Amino acid sequence: MSDEYIGKTSAKDFYRDFVRNILEGYLVIGADDLLIKECNEKFEFALGYNSGELISKHIFKIIKANDNETVMAFRNIVSIIKKMGEWKGIVNYVMKDSMDLWCFGNFYLKDHPEMGSTIISTNVNITSRIVFEEDQKKRINDLEVIEKIMLDRELRMIELKKYIRELEKELKDKK
Hints:
- By secondary structure, the protein is an alpha+beta fold.
- It has helices spanning 3-8, 11-18, 41-46, 68-84, 127-174; strands at 25-30, 36-39, 86-94, 100-112, 116-125.
- It folds into 2 domains: 3-125, PAS domain (Beta-Lactamase); 127-175.
- The chain is built from 5 helices and 5 strands.
């Protein structure tokens, strides 16, 4: 987009045009105050909010920030975005009903004439993938436990058979 276009459009029109072809949710936050400036209905709906309900809310209302470590991790991501101009990765959002919504996000630092320095992100819901991967990890762990139990059982059976042979030999030698 040209600077001339940016100067002649409102903030909402600028960001709507910027992401008009995005199939998933988008989010615009202030780079300094971390307040939500704009997001599309698809993003709000995915989080369980009504249209416009997230505007002017702090990002930590929807970022899983239940401990100091998580808050610091997100602040580090913001620092990276400010320094490098972008960041891509997995974000754990928290829905209105406190459920997890996992997204792969592309975050970009953008200056806007009305909003100032902003971070715009596109978000693709990957919750089902994360749940699937966690389920697979659990299944693999369960199988490893079963394998260990079976292996230990087989090793014990070998020891017992060896012991039985020794006892049979002793018995035979005593006769």
